[in-house]
Amino acid sequence: MAQEVLLEAKGVTKRFGGLTAVNKVDFVIYKGMIAGLIGPNGAGKTTFFNNMTGLYTPTEGDFIFNGKPITGLKPHIIQDRGISRTFQNIRLFGQLSALENVLVGMHTRLNGTVFEAFFRPKRVIHEEKRAREKALDLLDFVGLGRDSAEMAARNLPYGFQRRLEIARALASDPKLLLLDEPTAGMNPQEKKELTELVDHLRKELGVTVLLIEHDMKVVMGISDRVSVLDHGEKIAEGLPKVVQANPKVIEAYLGTGAAAEGA
Amino acid sequence: MDIFIDLVLIGLSNGGIIALNAVAVTVIYCAVRTLNLAHGDVYALSSVMTMVVLRNILPLDGPPSWSQLIIGLIVSVISTIIFGMVFSMLIEFLGFRLFRGQSRLAPIIATLGLSFMLYQLALVWRKLLPTFSAGEHRSVPGVDELPRDVVPHVFPQLDVFQALGINTTSRFDIKDLFIIVCAPIAAYLVHLLLNHTKIGRSIRACAQNSLAAQMVGVNLNGAIRAAFAIGGALAGIAAFIFAITVERPVANHGAQSGLIAFTAAILGGIGNPIGALASGMLIGMFAAFSDYLLDGRWTPALIYLLLVGLLMWRPSGLSPEERVSDLSQQTSDVVVLNATRASAALRPSAILINLVPLALLYPLIVPLIGEYYLPVVNSFLIYVVLALGLTILLGFAGVLDVGYALNFAIGAYIMAYMTGPAMAWRDQLLGFVPDGLIVFPVIILITGCLGIVKGWITSRMRIDYLAIATLALSLMMRDILKNSGAGGVGGFSAIPPPTLFGVHFNNFTMQYLLVLGLVAIIVIGSYRLLNSRTGRAMAAMREDEYAAQSSGVNVAFYKSVSFFIGDSIAGLAGGLYASMLSFAEPGLADFQVSVMVLSMVAIGGIGNITGAVFGVFSIMGLDRIVIPFIQSLMGEQPFVQFTLRELNFLLFGLALYFSVFVSRRFKSKTEN
C-alpha cells in the first residue's frame, strides 16, 4: 500500500530551561490513518501537540505538514494549513452559543472582512447563511442535535461539550485532527460512543486523526498504529497489539518489576 | 553642590513615603498575584485619620505642650496603623476573597469601585471637619469655606545641618530626617517579618504555589489576610508620616499614589521589600531631580511612562515563578456578564428597542422640563456614543481598558485644533477652517490609529497589567495635554458648533438629531458586528485567547481591530463633545471620566448594547437631573450642596463594584 505522508516530525526536541519535555522525536502520520499517542503522565504528549500546533516553537527539529515546513508558525496559520485540535481540559468559548463556537472554528474558511461586517454585502449574507447550515450539519454529525445550537456552550452537559469541541475543530475541514484525551472524565458507555464517533469521522469525512489517550482500551480499539512516549522520548511504535506486549511499554506504565514479571 | 545635596535630601524624604507604599504593594502582590488598585485610597484615607486624631489632641494654634505632643503622636500613629489595617483587610474581603479562584478581572474592577468609594468617603469626611476654629470669624457669612484640613504642627523648626554645625546653605529639616530614618526601619521590619516568622513564611509559600501551600497545611485565607494587614499597616505608617510632615492629608485621588507605589514595587523586583524600599527612594530622587531640572509638571508623566515601560518589559508576570507558567494551562479571564446575543442582530425589533426611547426622549422631555435640559440630553447621547465604544472594546473583545477616556480627550482636542478660534498652526497649514463634520473622519482615523498603538503597547500584557497600563497611559496623556502648549490647564474654549457645507448645527434640536443619527449608526453597526465573522473572532478572543488562535483566529489582528473601533468611537464622542459643549480640556482624559464610562457599561452588564444605553441614563440621570433636583429642594445649605455634587464618585464606585458582585453570584449559580 503506497501511503502518502501527511505529517512528519523530524527530531523534535523541546526544552524548558533544564527540563527536556520532548526529546528527538521522529514521527510520521500517513493520510487517512488514526494514529494513537500514549504514554504515562508527564511523558510529553501534550507538549508534543503544543509544538505541532504552534503554541510552542520546538527547540530543535521540524514539523513538515503536507510537504511544507510548519515549524515556528503562529497557531492560527497552522490551523489555516489544515491542522485542528481539541484540548485535554475543554476550552470552548463559554458564553457563545454552540452554533457560534462552530462558526468560530470556520473562521479561516470564511471571507467576511471587518468592513463587510458593517456593510453586509449580499456575498457575506449568503456566506453566513451557508456557514450556519454547515455548522448545524456538523452539530448533527457529532450528535449534538439542533436543539442545543442556541445554548451557551458553558451550559451544555460535559459529554456535549467534548463533542462540540470536536465539531468546532472539524468546522475548518482539517486534513489532520488532533484529539487530546477526548474521553477523559467519561464513563464507559460515553467512551464507547465517542470512540464510534472518531471512527465515523475517518470513514465519512476522510479526516486523518492523531489521538492522545490515557485509556488503553480506547486507543487499542481504533488506532491503526500506536506510538508510546516516555520521558519525552519515543520508546515504541507499531500495531496496537505489538506495542501492548512491548516490555519497554509495560515498564513505562507499570514500573521495572512489572516488565520482568510480564516477560 | 548645595543644590545637589538639597535635591538628594528632598528626594530621599519624598521617596521614603513612596517606599513604604511600595513595600505594602509588594507584600500584597505576593499574596494575591495582582495589584491592589484601592491601596492608594487606604493610604489617603488613613492620612485623614491621622489628621482627625491630631486635631483633637493638639492645639491648632500655638505650640503643643510636651505631654500633648507625646500622647498625640502615640495615639495617632497607633490609630492610623489600625485604621489602615482594618480598611486593607476590608478590601481583601470585599475585593479579593469574594472573587478568589474565579477571574483575575473581577478583583480589578471591584477594587476600582472600592477605590472610588473610599475616595468619596475621604472627601465627605474632610468636608465634615469644622471649617473654622472657635473664635475665628468666617470670611464671608453663608459662603462655604474650604475645609481647613490642616494638621497641627508637630515638628519644631530645626535645621539638622545647622544644629550639627555643618557649614552649608542646604537645609535639612528634622522632618526629612524623620522620614529618611523611619522608612528603612519599617521596610526592614517587613523584610524580617516575611523571612523569619511563621506568618511571613506562609505568605511566601502561598506566593510560590498556593495549592501546594494549602496542602501542607498553610491557611491560605489567613496568609492573604495577613499580607493585607501588613500592607494596610504600612499604608497607615506612610499616611501618618505624610500627614505630620506635610501637615495636610493626602488630597489626590489615591490612584495616583497607588500607581507611583506600583512603579516602585515593580522596579524593585516585585516581592522584595528591600528592593521596593530602594526603588521607592530612587523614584523619590528621580522626582526631585526632574522637578528641578525639567519641570515639576512633567514628573508624574515620566513616572507613568516608566510604569508602562516596566509592564511592557514583563508583560506576563512580574515575579520569576509567574513567567514560567504554562500558557496552555492559563485560565481565561472573562468579565462579560450579560452579552447581547448575536442572534438578536437578526431581529430588527432588538435594534429598535434601543433607538425608539432615545428618539422619543427629546420630544417628550422638552414640554416636560423645558429648554434648560436640552444640552443635558445632548450630552447624554454623547455619553451613549462613548459607552457603546467601550461596550465593543470591553464587552465584545474583552479588553479591560481603564483609561478609555484617553482618546475621548484626543478627539475633543483635534476638534478644537481644527475648528476652534485663533489656531495659528492650522491657519498656516490649511489656511481655512474646515467644516466640523468633515473633521470627524480625521478624528476617527487618528484616534483609531492611536488605539492600535495602545493595543500594541499592551499586546502581550496580562489582563490586570493591561488595566493598569491603560490607566497610566490616560493619565500621562492628561498631563501632556495640561503641560504642553495645547491650551494648558484650561484647554480650549469657544469651539463652534459643527457645520457641514454651510449648514450650522447651532441649535440644540439639530445637534440632537445629529447625535441621534450617529447613535443609530453605531447601534446598528454594533449589532451587525456582533453577528459577523469579525465579531465572532473578537468574542472568541475574549472567551479564550489560546483556543481562539487554535481555531484560526489571528488574535493580534483582531485586538488591533477592536482597539481601532473602540478608540475611534471614543474620539468621535470627544469631537462631538468639543463642538457641542464648545470646550476641550485636559480633564477629559481624567481617571474619573474613564471610570464613569466603565461604570455605565458595567451597570448594563458589560457587553450588552441595551444595557450600556440604560447605564448611561441611570448614571447621568442621577448625576445631572436627580441630584440637582434634590439640591433645589434642599435649598441653600452649603454642606448638602457640596456633598451631593461630589456623590458621583460613590455612584461610580457602587456601580462598578456591584456589577462584578452580581456577575459573581450569577456565575456560581450557572456553574452549580
Question: Could you walk me through the main structural features you see in this protein, from its secondary elements to its overall organization?
Answer:
- The complex is a heterodimer of chains A (263) and B (672).
- Chain A has 263 residues and is α/β, with parallel strands linked by helices.
- Chain A has 2 domains: 1-82 and 174-263, P-loop containing nucleotide triphosphate hydrolases (Rossmann fold), CATH 3.40.50; 94-172, no CATH class.
- Helices cover 41% and strands 24% of the residues of chain A.
- Chain A contains 11 helices and 10 strands.
- Chain A has helices spanning 45-52, 75-81, 98-105, 114-119, 122-142, 158-170, 188-205, 216-222, 240-245, 247-254, 256-262; strands at 5-16, 19-30, 34-38, 60-65, 68-69, 83-85, 176-180, 208-212, 225-230, 233-238.
- In chain A, the strands form 2 sheets. Chain A has a 6-stranded mixed sheet, with helices on both faces. A 4-stranded antiparallel sheet of chain A has the order 2-1-4-5, with helices on one face.
- In chain A, strand 9 and strand 10 (233-238) form a beta hairpin.
- Chain A is globular.
- With 672 residues, chain B is mostly helical.
- Chain B has 2 domains: 2-131 and 148-159 and 167-323, ABC transporter involved in vitamin B12 uptake, BtuC, CATH 1.10.3470; 373-671, no CATH class.
- In chain B, 72% of the residues lie in helices and 1% in strands.
- Chain B contains 27 helices and 4 strands.
- Chain B has helices spanning 2-32, 39-57, 66-96, 105-128, 160-164, 174-196, 198-208, 210-215, 220-246, 254-267, 273-295, 299-313, 320-323, 348-369, 374-396, 405-419, 424-429, 436-457, 463-483, 508-530, 533-543, 545-550, 555-581, 591-603, 609-634, 638-646, 648-671, and strands spanning 492-493, 499-500, 503-504, 583-584.
- Chain B has a two-stranded antiparallel sheet. A two-stranded antiparallel ribbon of chain B has the order 2-3.
- In chain B, helix 1 crosses helix 7, helix 24 crosses helix 25 (609-634) and helix 24 crosses helix 27 (648-671).
- The longest helix of chain B has 31 residues, at 2-32.
- Chain B is globular and about 75 Å long.
